[in-house]
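Q: Could you fold this chain for me?
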Amino acid sequence: MTDISKDIAIAILVIIALVGFISGEFIISSTLFAATTIVSNLKANRKRTRDGQLLWD
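A: Sure. Below is the predicted structure, expressed as structure tokens.
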């Protein structure tokens, strides 16, 4: 997947999670928020290591 398609997928998951939260499905929305956070952090960490920076987080 390209970066733009990953960003679009993350945005769609966040929107679905917000709709789930508003409708009262808290377990599903919490799971989707967690999934988008993990995917977003993995993407950011891969980008930093590709640039040659050391990660000690």
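A (continued): Residues 4 and 11 are 10 Å apart (CA to CA).
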